[in-house]
Design a protein that fits this description.
Elements (H helix, E strand, L loop, with lengths): L8 E2 H11 L4 E4 L6 H7 L7 E4 L3 H15 L3 E5 L3 H15 L4 E7 L15 H4 L7 E4 L6 H13 L5 E7 H5 L1 E2 L16 H13 L3 E5 L6 H14 L3 E4 L13 E5 L5 H9 L2 E5 L22 E6 L13 E4 L2 H10 L5 H4 L3 H14 L11 H11 L5 E4 L4 H8 L8 E2 L9 H11 L5 E6 H7 L3 H6 L5 E6 L4 H10 L14 H7 L3 E5 L5 H10 L4 E6 L11 H7 L2
Parallel strand pairs: 2-3, 2-4, 4-5, 5-7, 6-7, 9-10, 9-12, 10-11, 12-13, 13-14, 15-16, 15-17, 17-18, 18-20, 19-20
Antiparallel strand pairs: 1-8
Helix pairs in contact: 1-2, 1-6, 3-4, 3-16, 9-11, 14-15, 19-22
């Protein structure tokens, strides 16, 4: 290839070249006139960079987030200014709260129009402030594109990963410059120090009831394997933070459950009883701490060891006894290499850990909710039928509580879900998952309200011939809000009811296969027909609104306040 420094290129060409140099193989977006020059430049890189055309910018941003979660590389999202950028904001916020590497490229008004409230103009630096992105900038000179892109890739992947937003004035993309390319980005992470590891071993040796909590981002398959080896060698009970259940094979005897919404009360009690909490990866935010009630703020009676990628997270809410700034692969490798604790030490908590495991296994037993479709048994059938490496995605809503409780995750990156609690994630993330891993089975688990927020991306699945199974739990309402409504304002239903389409018919309209399940015993056959279909398929599961969670009913919630 000719040295770019020896020839002039447009800003769009320079940008496309940087994306290729940084290893981008896929980008998600909705085309816009504000970045036509970049789209044109990507035409020359079609052999290396696949531009996935989405149906709404929120779907594109969620796909980019899912890509970042699956690969550890920044997911690329391309949108136009104004409405395009604001639509994408939900996925950007998810990437920020989930610590997912992402780079968002937004077309912007021409530089001469800035600050005149031109057509669709926005001040992106103010809109994507410190709680939406790690860095927001505007590239005003084509000659500086390599510098900005290099910084974006390094920042998105280093420390606590997250999204970076770059605005691209349309006239900047058409101006020419002669500038050398940057080199491929490098991930920068801290390592645990020898003194910290020695102190950690001493704290473990003194513990009677230790508990390991895994979560956060930045993990790799090797890091997960290293952590599993460490936990098993010491017999340590391991819980996983909200929607991070695939960080520890749920079949291992050391796995004791998920620490998130609807936590098993017995598990919550054990965490409170623990005398040593080893939190590796999670931010110890609202979900991981049950609304900051599992642990006392700012200092607790138990010993806290907190390991996180971002130094700014350590001591943010809780004053730990040992705070370690480290990447997850680095920490997991160090723990695996740590000299094993004597059997006389680990033997102190053997019975305690075994009891926690027994509590978890009990939660997998099916329940008997009201109605003709029992989701606990549906999920048992689904788990039995799917391969161990199947990827299951979901968004937000009470329907997900059934999945989190009754589906066991057996390998790293078999779960894709937003810890931000954003609805509409399940459909687009499944599209990205199938594009990244075309050889793996992908299932998207959705509620009726959640599906409709980005269900149009089923058209994207059909356009690219993606064999994805979409499951839609239809109870005719925004279930989570209705649950809270009945708890706080019994029998005063307001604003939570839904009138839904025939989801199976909708799937067929998109060119897929559709099934409607009215009885539990019909699910297995419907599942087989969908898995045999060469393209996207959908199963609508019509459930009783009373079956609001695996543990209670709407009537029970309503009557509890009367």
């Amino acid at each position: 290839m000719t040295d770019p420094a020896l020839r002039p290129r447009t800003g769009g060409q320079i940008l496309a070249d940087q994306l290729r140099i940084h290893g981008v193989d896929m980008a998600f977006g909705v085309p816009g006139e504000s970045y036509l020059a970049l789209l044109d430049a990507l035409h020359d890189h079609q052999d290396a960079i696949r531009f996935v055309v989405c149906r709404q910018e929120g779907g594109a941003a969620n796909m980019a987030d899912a890509y970042g979660k699956l690969t550890g590389r920044p997911g690329i999202c391309m949108v136009t200014r104004g409405p395009g950028a604001t639509n994408a904001a939900i996925g950007i916020h998810t990437a920020f709260q989930d610590s997912t590497p992402m780079i968002v490229l937004i077309g912007q008004v021409a530089r001469d129009y800035v600050d005149r409230e031109a057509f669709q103009e926005m001040d992106f630096r103010r809109f994507f402030g410190p709680f939406m992105a790690k860095w927001t900038a505007q590239i005003d000179s084509a000659a500086r594109i390599p510098e900005y892109l290099s910084h974006a890739f390094h920042l998105a992947t280093s420390g606590r990963p997250g999204p970076v937003v770059l605005a691209l004035p349309e006239d900047m993309l058409t101006e020419t410059a002669t500038v050398p390319d940057a080199r491929h980005w490098q991930r920068v992470q801290a390592n645990p120090g020898a003194a910290d590891l020695e102190r950690l071993r001493g704290l473990l040796a003194a513990a009677e009831r230790p508990f390991v909590l895994l979560g956060g981002s930045g993990w790799t398959a090797q890091a997960v394997a290293d952590m599993a080896a460490f936990a098993q060698a010491s017999g340590l009970p391991v819980g996983c933070a909200f929607r991070c259940q695939d960080l520890h094979d749920n079949r291992l005897p050391t796995y004791v459950g998920d620490v998130g919404v609807g936590i098993n009360p017995a598990l919550a009690a054990r965490i409170r009883e623990a005398d040593l909490l080893l939190a590796i990866g999670p931010r110890l935010g609202e979900m991981a701490t049950q609304g900051y009630t599992l642990l006392d703020v700012p200092r607790m009676s138990k010993t806290l060891v907190h390991v996180h990628q971002g130094a700014e997270e350590l001591g943010r809410v809780y004053q730990g006894d040992l705070l370690i700034n480290s990447g997850m692969p680095e920490m997991a490798a160090a723990l695996r290499a740590m000299p094993a604790l004597p059997a006389t030490v680990s033997g102190r908590w053997t019975a305690w850990a075994a009891a926690a495991r027994a509590d978890y296994l009990q939660t997998l037993e099916p329940v008997t909710p009201p109605g003709d479709v029992n989701l606990s048994r549906v999920l048992r059938t689904l788990r039995t039928r799917l391969p161990d490496d199947a990827i299951v995605t979901n968004g937000a809503g009470n329907y997900a509580a059934w999945l989190h409780r009754f589906f066991d995750y057996r390998g790293y990156r078999t779960q894709l879900a937003p810890t931000s609690g954003a609805m509409g994630y399940g459909v687009p993330s499944a599209v990205a998952a199938k594009l990244v891993h075309p050889d793996r089975t992908v299932v998207s688990w959705n509620g009726d309200g959640c599906f409709m927020m980005n269900g149009q991306e089923m058209a994207t699945a059909a356009q690219y011939g993606l064999k994805i199974l979409f499951c839609v739990v239809n109870n005719g309402m925004y279930g989570t809000i209705r649950m809270h409504q009945e708890r706080e304002y019994p029998a005063r239903v307001s604003g939570t009811g839904l009138r839904n389409p025939d989801f199976a018919m909708l799937a067929r309209a998109y060119g897929g296969h559709g099934e409607t399940v009215l009885h539990t015993e019909d699910f297995a056959a419907a599942l087989e027909r969908c898995l045999a279909f060469d393209g996207p398929s959908l199963i609508e599961l019509r459930t009783d609104p009373e079956a609001i969670t695996p543990r209670t009913t709407l009537s029970a919630l309503r009557n509890a306040r009367r």
